[in-house]
Amino acid sequence: MFPAPPTLGTQIDRMGRPAINTALTGSFDPTCTAATCPAKDAYNANHDPTTWSADYAPGFAGYLGIYDSLDTVCGNQPAYAPPATKTSYGTLASVLANDVLWLNTGSTTCQQYLGVELLALKAITAVDCGGRTPAENTIDLTFNIVAGTLTPATLPTNPGIATNGITAAASPPSATFPYLAAPH
Description:
mainly alpha, 6 helices, globular
């Protein structure tokens, strides 16, 4: 069963940072099913950035605490503030709730997804333009950031603990805008 198509102009998704909603909204909510998740739908439909931090950062902080335990070392996420409480994850939660992909146009190095954010959180030391390329494995990188396994020593290849097992696109994107892959 498919939902009714959206009314023209109705926002149905936002994707500043791919995988953030997937990882940090309703992940362990029993009302979320394979077909629908009210919390994820509300996140996607929220078009008012002035409400994002207040609406989503508290919930994100709780999920960040869960993900931080994946590598059995709690407290190694970017911007973690001890002692271990829900507020320990507040800074990273606030940054991720602001669903905007930041770019540093003054940098000539562009090798790290979320490079501007990670530099601001002191998770990396190299200045990077941030953003992302179409070939970037944002799912692996996002889960490694929230699990605390993204470290300067593993950048930019980042083997980490979390992987979706996908190492390349079925059809690589073109190198020029609009970066469309060849049909297959």
